[in-house]
């Protein structure tokens, strides 16, 4: 992603409008984007990383 603040805000706003259940941005999204997603999605944010296995059915929104 590595977009500027406006581009990241647009992506976050669009995903919020689509009522996405969970987000799991990883290193390729960039630190600023990960931080913005963490704040915007709160309990629906999953910290990603290399080798991480995500089980959506076990996550609690």
What does this structure look like?
With 61 residues, the chain is mostly helical. It has one domain (5-58). It is 39% helix and 0% strand. It has helices at residues 5-17, 31-41.
- The total tally of domains equals 1
Succession of helices and strands: HH
**Unreliable spans:** none
**SSE-based structural type:** mainly alpha
Helix content: 25-40%
The fraction of residues in strands falls at under 5%
Q: Give the overall pLDDT as a whole number.
A: 88
Largest sheet: none
First-residue to last-residue Cα separation:
24 Å
Net shape: globular
Radius of gyration: 11 Å
Number of helices: 2
Number of strands: 0
List the helices and strands and how they pair.
Blueprint lengths: L4 H13 L13 H11 L20
Helix pairs in contact: 1-2
Q: What is the structure about, briefly put?
A:
This protein has one domain. The protein contains two helices and no strands.
List the keywords.
61 residues; globular; 2 helices; single chain
């Amino acid at each position: 992603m590595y977009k500027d603040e406006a581009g990241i805000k647009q992506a976050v706003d669009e995903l919020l409008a689509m009522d996405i259940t969970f987000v799991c941005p990883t290193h390729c999204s960039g630190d600023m984007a990960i931080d913005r997603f963490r704040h915007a999605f709160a309990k629906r944010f999953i910290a990603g990383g290399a080798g991480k296995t995500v089980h959506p059915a076990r996550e609690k929104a």
